[in-house]
Design a protein that fits this description.
With about 350 residues, the chain is an alpha/beta fold. It is built from 15 helices and twelve strands. Helix 7 packs antiparallel against helix 8.
Length: about 350
Protein backbone atom coordinates (compact mmCIF):
# COMPACT_ATOMS: atom_id res chain seq x y z
CA UNK A 1 0.00 0.00 0.00
CA UNK A 2 1.43 3.46 -0.90
CA UNK A 3 2.33 5.80 1.98
CA UNK A 4 -0.33 8.30 3.08
CA UNK A 5 1.53 11.48 2.17
CA UNK A 6 0.21 14.72 3.66
CA UNK A 7 1.45 18.31 3.45
CA UNK A 8 2.26 20.01 6.75
CA UNK A 9 2.97 23.72 7.06
CA UNK A 10 6.49 24.69 8.11
CA UNK A 11 7.05 25.06 11.82
CA UNK A 12 5.78 28.50 12.95
CA UNK A 13 7.48 30.83 15.38
CA UNK A 14 10.99 29.41 15.14
CA UNK A 15 13.90 31.76 14.75
CA UNK A 16 16.89 31.24 12.52
CA UNK A 17 18.75 28.49 14.36
CA UNK A 18 22.34 28.81 13.14
CA UNK A 19 23.19 26.27 10.45
CA UNK A 20 26.51 25.74 12.18
CA UNK A 21 24.70 23.78 14.90
CA UNK A 22 24.16 21.00 12.36
CA UNK A 23 27.86 20.29 12.75
CA UNK A 24 28.00 20.78 16.49
CA UNK A 25 25.19 18.28 16.97
CA UNK A 26 26.82 15.24 15.43
CA UNK A 27 30.55 15.93 15.41
CA UNK A 28 33.28 15.56 17.97
CA UNK A 29 34.55 18.98 19.13
CA UNK A 30 37.76 18.79 17.10
CA UNK A 31 35.95 17.82 13.90
CA UNK A 32 33.41 20.55 14.54
CA UNK A 33 36.14 23.20 14.86
CA UNK A 34 37.74 21.91 11.66
CA UNK A 35 34.41 22.17 9.85
CA UNK A 36 33.82 25.73 11.07
CA UNK A 37 37.29 26.71 9.86
CA UNK A 38 36.67 25.04 6.49
CA UNK A 39 33.36 26.85 5.96
CA UNK A 40 34.83 30.15 7.15
CA UNK A 41 37.68 29.86 4.65
CA UNK A 42 35.33 28.88 1.81
CA UNK A 43 32.97 31.79 2.45
CA UNK A 44 35.75 34.35 2.94
CA UNK A 45 37.63 33.23 -0.17
CA UNK A 46 34.46 33.26 -2.26
CA UNK A 47 33.49 36.72 -1.01
CA UNK A 48 36.80 38.12 -2.25
CA UNK A 49 36.93 36.24 -5.56
CA UNK A 50 33.25 36.87 -6.34
CA UNK A 51 33.86 40.59 -5.96
CA UNK A 52 37.14 40.70 -7.88
CA UNK A 53 36.09 38.32 -10.66
CA UNK A 54 32.29 37.89 -10.62
CA UNK A 55 30.98 34.62 -11.98
CA UNK A 56 28.53 34.74 -14.84
CA UNK A 57 26.47 31.74 -15.88
CA UNK A 58 27.04 30.88 -19.54
CA UNK A 59 24.55 28.95 -21.62
CA UNK A 60 26.32 26.93 -24.32
CA UNK A 61 23.33 25.35 -26.06
CA UNK A 62 19.54 25.35 -26.03
CA UNK A 63 18.05 22.41 -27.94
CA UNK A 64 14.52 21.18 -28.47
CA UNK A 65 13.44 17.84 -27.05
CA UNK A 66 10.86 15.31 -28.20
CA UNK A 67 8.52 15.33 -25.19
CA UNK A 68 5.33 17.43 -25.34
CA UNK A 69 5.36 20.96 -23.96
CA UNK A 70 3.07 23.83 -22.98
CA UNK A 71 1.07 21.93 -20.35
CA UNK A 72 0.87 24.80 -17.84
CA UNK A 73 3.13 22.82 -15.50
CA UNK A 74 6.83 23.52 -16.07
CA UNK A 75 9.61 21.40 -14.60
CA UNK A 76 13.26 22.49 -14.38
CA UNK A 77 15.59 19.54 -13.74
CA UNK A 78 19.33 19.99 -13.11
CA UNK A 79 21.91 17.32 -13.98
CA UNK A 80 25.65 17.05 -13.40
CA UNK A 81 28.18 14.24 -13.61
CA UNK A 82 31.98 14.27 -13.85
CA UNK A 83 32.13 13.22 -17.49
CA UNK A 84 28.69 14.43 -18.52
CA UNK A 85 27.05 11.02 -18.81
CA UNK A 86 23.31 10.88 -18.10
CA UNK A 87 22.50 7.73 -16.18
CA UNK A 88 19.44 5.53 -16.52
CA UNK A 89 18.39 6.69 -13.05
CA UNK A 90 18.42 10.34 -14.13
CA UNK A 91 16.46 9.53 -17.29
CA UNK A 92 13.91 7.70 -15.14
CA UNK A 93 13.55 10.65 -12.76
CA UNK A 94 12.92 13.07 -15.63
CA UNK A 95 10.47 10.64 -17.24
CA UNK A 96 8.49 10.26 -14.01
CA UNK A 97 8.01 14.02 -13.70
CA UNK A 98 7.06 14.16 -17.39
CA UNK A 99 4.50 11.40 -16.86
CA UNK A 100 3.10 13.40 -13.94
CA UNK A 101 2.18 16.13 -16.44
CA UNK A 102 5.18 18.48 -16.40
CA UNK A 103 6.80 20.08 -19.43
CA UNK A 104 10.33 19.05 -18.56
CA UNK A 105 13.37 21.24 -19.17
CA UNK A 106 16.58 19.26 -18.76
CA UNK A 107 19.48 21.48 -17.69
CA UNK A 108 22.99 20.12 -17.47
CA UNK A 109 26.03 21.76 -15.89
CA UNK A 110 28.20 19.26 -17.77
CA UNK A 111 28.94 18.23 -21.38
CA UNK A 112 27.00 15.02 -22.10
CA UNK A 113 28.17 12.56 -24.76
CA UNK A 114 26.15 12.87 -27.97
CA UNK A 115 24.27 9.61 -27.39
CA UNK A 116 23.18 10.60 -23.87
CA UNK A 117 22.21 14.09 -25.06
CA UNK A 118 19.95 12.55 -27.69
CA UNK A 119 18.53 9.95 -25.29
CA UNK A 120 17.33 12.53 -22.76
CA UNK A 121 15.40 14.31 -25.53
CA UNK A 122 12.76 11.58 -25.30
CA UNK A 123 11.76 12.82 -21.86
CA UNK A 124 12.35 16.59 -22.15
CA UNK A 125 10.67 19.30 -24.16
CA UNK A 126 13.79 21.48 -23.96
CA UNK A 127 17.45 20.82 -23.19
CA UNK A 128 19.89 23.42 -21.87
CA UNK A 129 23.65 22.92 -21.66
CA UNK A 130 25.51 25.48 -19.57
CA UNK A 131 28.75 26.14 -17.68
CA UNK A 132 29.06 24.57 -14.22
CA UNK A 133 28.51 27.88 -12.42
CA UNK A 134 25.94 28.72 -9.75
CA UNK A 135 25.05 25.10 -8.96
CA UNK A 136 21.32 24.32 -8.92
CA UNK A 137 19.88 27.81 -8.43
CA UNK A 138 22.03 29.28 -11.18
CA UNK A 139 20.95 26.46 -13.49
CA UNK A 140 17.26 26.83 -12.65
CA UNK A 141 17.56 30.58 -13.27
CA UNK A 142 19.03 30.04 -16.74
CA UNK A 143 16.60 27.22 -17.50
CA UNK A 144 13.62 29.40 -16.62
CA UNK A 145 14.97 32.19 -18.84
CA UNK A 146 15.13 29.76 -21.78
CA UNK A 147 11.80 28.00 -21.13
CA UNK A 148 9.26 30.67 -20.23
CA UNK A 149 9.47 32.57 -23.56
CA UNK A 150 8.73 29.24 -25.30
CA UNK A 151 6.07 27.75 -23.04
CA UNK A 152 4.60 30.77 -21.25
CA UNK A 153 4.22 31.54 -17.56
CA UNK A 154 3.22 28.29 -15.82
CA UNK A 155 0.61 27.73 -13.13
CA UNK A 156 2.95 25.17 -11.57
CA UNK A 157 6.74 25.40 -11.44
CA UNK A 158 8.88 22.44 -10.39
CA UNK A 159 12.52 22.72 -9.32
CA UNK A 160 14.33 19.37 -9.16
CA UNK A 161 17.85 17.99 -9.38
CA UNK A 162 19.72 14.69 -9.47
CA UNK A 163 21.10 14.84 -5.91
CA UNK A 164 18.85 12.02 -4.71
CA UNK A 165 18.84 8.30 -5.50
CA UNK A 166 15.52 6.79 -6.44
CA UNK A 167 12.63 6.95 -6.21
CA UNK A 168 12.49 3.56 -4.48
CA UNK A 169 8.70 3.69 -3.98
CA UNK A 170 5.83 4.30 -6.43
CA UNK A 171 6.08 7.87 -7.69
CA UNK A 172 2.51 8.94 -8.63
CA UNK A 173 1.26 9.20 -4.99
CA UNK A 174 4.16 11.54 -4.20
CA UNK A 175 3.49 13.83 -7.18
CA UNK A 176 -0.22 13.87 -6.36
CA UNK A 177 0.41 14.77 -2.71
CA UNK A 178 2.45 17.82 -3.73
CA UNK A 179 -0.49 19.05 -5.83
CA UNK A 180 -3.46 18.62 -3.50
CA UNK A 181 -2.58 21.41 -1.08
CA UNK A 182 -3.86 24.29 -3.18
CA UNK A 183 -1.48 27.19 -3.80
CA UNK A 184 1.92 27.61 -2.20
CA UNK A 185 5.49 26.33 -2.19
CA UNK A 186 5.70 22.64 -1.37
CA UNK A 187 8.61 20.27 -0.83
CA UNK A 188 9.49 16.91 0.59
CA UNK A 189 11.65 17.63 3.65
CA UNK A 190 11.80 20.49 6.12
CA UNK A 191 15.05 21.57 7.79
CA UNK A 192 15.35 23.81 10.85
CA UNK A 193 18.98 24.83 10.37
CA UNK A 194 18.99 28.54 9.54
CA UNK A 195 15.27 28.66 10.33
CA UNK A 196 12.52 26.38 9.02
CA UNK A 197 12.88 25.95 5.28
CA UNK A 198 12.20 23.50 2.48
CA UNK A 199 15.16 21.54 1.16
CA UNK A 200 15.51 22.28 -2.52
CA UNK A 201 16.17 18.99 -4.35
CA UNK A 202 12.43 18.87 -5.23
CA UNK A 203 10.17 21.92 -4.85
CA UNK A 204 6.81 22.68 -6.40
CA UNK A 205 5.34 26.19 -6.62
CA UNK A 206 1.59 26.28 -7.33
CA UNK A 207 -0.44 29.36 -8.14
CA UNK A 208 0.49 32.82 -9.32
CA UNK A 209 1.91 34.18 -6.07
CA UNK A 210 4.15 31.16 -5.48
CA UNK A 211 5.36 30.92 -9.08
CA UNK A 212 6.05 34.67 -9.20
CA UNK A 213 7.96 34.42 -5.93
CA UNK A 214 10.15 31.57 -7.15
CA UNK A 215 10.89 33.31 -10.45
CA UNK A 216 11.76 36.54 -8.62
CA UNK A 217 14.09 34.57 -6.36
CA UNK A 218 15.82 32.91 -9.31
CA UNK A 219 16.21 36.24 -11.09
CA UNK A 220 17.82 37.75 -7.98
CA UNK A 221 20.22 34.83 -7.47
CA UNK A 222 23.87 35.77 -7.90
CA UNK A 223 26.41 33.09 -8.75
CA UNK A 224 29.02 32.39 -6.10
CA UNK A 225 31.95 30.04 -5.66
CA UNK A 226 30.75 29.04 -2.18
CA UNK A 227 28.42 26.04 -1.85
CA UNK A 228 27.57 27.22 1.68
CA UNK A 229 26.45 30.60 0.33
CA UNK A 230 24.40 28.96 -2.43
CA UNK A 231 22.42 27.12 0.25
CA UNK A 232 22.10 30.27 2.35
CA UNK A 233 21.10 32.53 -0.53
CA UNK A 234 19.25 29.98 -2.64
CA UNK A 235 17.57 27.30 -0.52
CA UNK A 236 17.06 29.05 2.83
CA UNK A 237 16.53 32.43 1.18
CA UNK A 238 13.72 31.05 -1.00
CA UNK A 239 11.64 29.90 1.97
CA UNK A 240 12.27 33.22 3.69
CA UNK A 241 11.19 35.14 0.58
CA UNK A 242 7.97 33.15 0.35
CA UNK A 243 7.24 33.71 4.04
CA UNK A 244 7.71 37.45 3.57
CA UNK A 245 5.26 37.36 0.65
CA UNK A 246 2.68 35.48 2.67
CA UNK A 247 2.91 32.35 0.51
CA UNK A 248 2.10 29.06 2.20
CA UNK A 249 5.10 26.74 2.68
CA UNK A 250 4.60 23.06 3.49
CA UNK A 251 6.46 19.75 3.39
CA UNK A 252 5.48 16.09 3.16
CA UNK A 253 8.04 15.13 5.82
CA UNK A 254 8.07 17.82 8.55
CA UNK A 255 11.09 17.88 10.84
CA UNK A 256 8.96 17.68 13.99
CA UNK A 257 7.43 14.43 12.76
CA UNK A 258 10.86 12.90 12.18
CA UNK A 259 12.20 13.72 15.65
CA UNK A 260 9.01 12.76 17.51
CA UNK A 261 10.13 9.13 17.84
CA UNK A 262 13.75 8.71 16.69
CA UNK A 263 14.86 5.14 16.12
CA UNK A 264 17.27 3.55 18.64
CA UNK A 265 19.87 3.24 15.86
CA UNK A 266 19.71 6.99 15.35
CA UNK A 267 20.12 7.80 19.05
CA UNK A 268 23.07 5.44 19.27
CA UNK A 269 24.65 6.92 16.15
CA UNK A 270 24.29 10.50 17.38
CA UNK A 271 25.75 9.84 20.84
CA UNK A 272 24.96 10.74 24.45
CA UNK A 273 23.87 14.31 23.70
CA UNK A 274 20.71 12.96 22.09
CA UNK A 275 19.64 10.91 25.10
CA UNK A 276 17.88 14.18 25.98
CA UNK A 277 14.85 14.43 23.62
CA UNK A 278 15.07 18.23 23.57
CA UNK A 279 18.49 17.98 21.88
CA UNK A 280 16.75 17.28 18.57
CA UNK A 281 15.15 20.75 18.84
CA UNK A 282 18.24 22.57 20.09
CA UNK A 283 20.66 21.03 17.62
CA UNK A 284 18.81 20.83 14.29
CA UNK A 285 19.91 17.94 12.13
CA UNK A 286 19.96 17.49 8.38
CA UNK A 287 16.98 15.17 7.91
CA UNK A 288 18.27 13.61 4.69
CA UNK A 289 21.52 12.64 6.45
CA UNK A 290 21.06 12.19 10.20
CA UNK A 291 17.43 11.04 10.00
CA UNK A 292 17.60 8.99 6.82
CA UNK A 293 16.22 5.87 8.50
CA UNK A 294 13.26 7.76 9.95
CA UNK A 295 12.52 9.22 6.53
CA UNK A 296 12.54 5.83 4.81
CA UNK A 297 10.36 4.30 7.52
CA UNK A 298 7.80 7.07 6.94
CA UNK A 299 7.69 6.49 3.18
CA UNK A 300 10.35 8.86 1.88
CA UNK A 301 11.16 7.56 -1.62
CA UNK A 302 14.77 8.74 -1.93
CA UNK A 303 18.27 8.49 -0.48
CA UNK A 304 20.56 11.50 -0.60
CA UNK A 305 23.42 10.74 -2.99
CA UNK A 306 25.99 12.64 -0.92
CA UNK A 307 25.13 10.56 2.14
CA UNK A 308 25.63 7.27 0.30
CA UNK A 309 28.76 8.35 -1.58
CA UNK A 310 30.68 10.33 1.02
CA UNK A 311 28.82 10.11 4.35
CA UNK A 312 30.31 13.50 5.32
CA UNK A 313 29.15 13.21 8.92
CA UNK A 314 30.77 9.81 9.39
CA UNK A 315 27.39 8.37 10.40
CA UNK A 316 27.26 4.72 11.42
CA UNK A 317 25.10 2.31 9.45
CA UNK A 318 24.90 4.21 6.17
CA UNK A 319 26.46 1.22 4.42
CA UNK A 320 23.18 -0.64 5.05
CA UNK A 321 21.30 1.53 2.54
CA UNK A 322 20.85 -1.26 -0.08
CA UNK A 323 18.48 -3.21 2.18
CA UNK A 324 15.98 -0.36 1.91
CA UNK A 325 15.94 -0.49 -1.89
CA UNK A 326 13.87 -2.92 -4.01
CA UNK A 327 16.20 -5.52 -5.53
CA UNK A 328 15.16 -4.67 -9.09
CA UNK A 329 16.29 -1.03 -8.64
CA UNK A 330 19.66 -1.72 -7.03
CA UNK A 331 21.65 -2.27 -10.27
CA UNK A 332 20.42 1.05 -11.69
CA UNK A 333 21.33 2.97 -8.53
CA UNK A 334 24.72 1.29 -8.29
CA UNK A 335 25.42 2.11 -11.94
CA UNK A 336 24.60 5.76 -11.22
CA UNK A 337 26.94 5.79 -8.21
CA UNK A 338 29.72 4.13 -10.19
CA UNK A 339 29.35 6.76 -12.91
CA UNK A 340 29.94 9.48 -10.31
CA UNK A 341 33.31 7.98 -9.39
CA UNK A 342 35.08 6.95 -6.18
CA UNK A 343 33.32 7.37 -2.91
CA UNK A 344 30.19 5.32 -3.51
CA UNK A 345 29.22 2.80 -0.87
CA UNK A 346 28.91 -0.85 -2.00
Amino acid sequence: MPPAYRLTDLAPGLGGTPRVLHGLAARAPRRFVQRVAQVGWEVSRAAVLDRVAPLRGRVHEVAEGCAPGASGALGLYLHWSPDGRISAMVRRQVALWRDAGFTMVFITNASPPAGDWEAIAEHAALRVRRANIGRDFGAWRDGAAAAIPRFGLPGELLLANDSVLGPVLPFPPLATALRVGGEGLFGLTESWGGGPHLQSYALLARGGAAVDGVLAHLLAFRDTRSKWLVVRQGEIGLSQRMQARGVRRASLFPYAGLIAAPLPETRAMLGPRFADPTAFDRFPLNPCHHLWRELLMQGFPYLKTELVRHNPGGLAGVEDWPRFVPAELLPMLRDHLAMLGPGAAP
